[in-house]
Amino acid sequence: MELEEIIAIHVEAIEVILNHILYIRGVYPAQIFKKRRVYNTPVFIVAFPALNSYLANILKTVQNLLTNAVQQLKLELIIYSNEAEHKESYFLEMQPGQADFTQDQYLMDYEQQLRAALYKFADRVKHLPKLGQNAKFKVHIHTTQTTFTQLSHDAQYQEFPWLQSTESPHQLKQQKLCLLPLSKVDKVGLRMEAYISN
């Protein structure tokens, strides 16, 4: 399987996972999500134009970075009530060069692992307290200074600019928190972790 196809598979999985987090954690009302069947399991995808556009721009950026030889990329979805207080952080680490589909050409194992990861995630966060109506989210991409510089000078990102974060990448770790083990999808080089602050 070509690297381009592997990256497209990664981006689809990331889209599903980001939407799944937003739906399961109740960041937005359930009414703005539509049920779709992906990986032979029902998932909820945002059906609100402004939010769709934001997520589409994130996914486009991730796809371009992975296509342009960024070998490892970490995406962080942060749920917060105000800028000074991050409640939850979900990390998606992508390593498309480590994906191995030689024994899974029809992606049966891949779908099974992702389906299991979605169910495990829902099960592990169901006991967390509700976020409340003032919950918001943002997405950070952890990458190198060189990649950021290239991104900020790329004309296609002028309407959706990426800014360098002024926050410490481990700001959440300074608070009292618990580490919630989620899932690693071994065959596709995709790993997911969460830090939940108390």
TrEMBL record:
Q: Which is one Gene Ontology cellular component term of this protein? A: zeta DNA polymerase complex
Give me the segments passing through the membrane.
none
Q: Which Pfam families match?
A: HORMA (PF02301)
HORMA domain residues are 4-196
The record's listing under PANTHER family reads: MITOTIC SPINDLE ASSEMBLY CHECKPOINT PROTEIN MAD2 (PTHR11842), MITOTIC SPINDLE ASSEMBLY CHECKPOINT PROTEIN MAD2B (PTHR11842:SF10)
The entry's protein name is HORMA domain-containing protein
Which taxonomic lineage is given here? Eukaryota, Metazoa, Ecdysozoa, Arthropoda, Hexapoda
